[in-house]
Amino acid sequence: MATDLDPTARLSVFAAASALSTTQDLVRLTLPHLTSAARPDLVAEETLALVATVTARAAEAGLREAPEVFTAVGQALVELPFLYHDYLLGVQLVARGEEGDVDVDQEVYARLERKAAFYAVHFPPGRFPGLRSLDDKLPLWMGRVSPPKLPTTPQQRLSDLDASGLMATHTRLVLAFAQRIAAG
Q: H or E element: which one contains 101?
């Protein structure tokens, strides 16, 4: 499809849509392996923070040849959990109509900030999150989304899933799309 859309914007939209889809797939895959004590909203929030960071790093790695957009795209993608929360607040506001305001819980933003900072440490800017890196780091994510006192370890719970494969496919797609954008 021929388009006049700015390549950076195109990459950002592609990567954001991919990240949201991957987050949904990963949450859907993971929730059955957790007890009913797991809060689906917090699992989704944590998962989106992980996927947004990994997506940003894959895009950055693909944009090494285009340093003028490297930082902007990465920063925009890391903002995805915050923007998605803003979207959810907007949905609530529209649903209420003229009935009243929506309470903005600032703790959610603080919580998202902590999650984003956590994943930024484990997936540094500009480094591609390949399968080995994902295999090493996904147990941290599983530990964070799991309720306390489960009878199995995060590694054991992950062994029942193909979370690394799902994430690796996602990162390779984002990397390839970014490389294509960088090549012109």
A: none
Instruction: Look up tokens 């859309």; give the residue.
Output: 5
pLDDT in tens, the chain (184 residues): 556 778 888 899 999 999 999 999 999 999 998 988 889 999 999 999 999 999 999 999 999 888 777 788 889 999 999 999 888 877 777 776 656 666 777 899 999 999 999 999 999 998 999 999 999 999 999 999 999 888 888 999 898 898 999 999 999 999 999 999 888 7
**C-alpha 143 chain-centroid distance:** 16
Distance between CA atoms of residues 58 and 173, nearest Å: 9
What burial letters (b/e) apply to 52-70, b meaning 16+ CB within 10 Å?
bbbbbbbbbbbbeebeebb
Q: What do you get for the CA distance between the two ends of the chain, in Å?
A: 15
Among residues 175, 179, 169, 177, the alpha carbon closest in space to that of 21 is found at 169
Residue 28 to residue 17: CA distance in whole angstroms = 17
**Closest C-alpha among 30, 64, 2 to residue 150:** 30
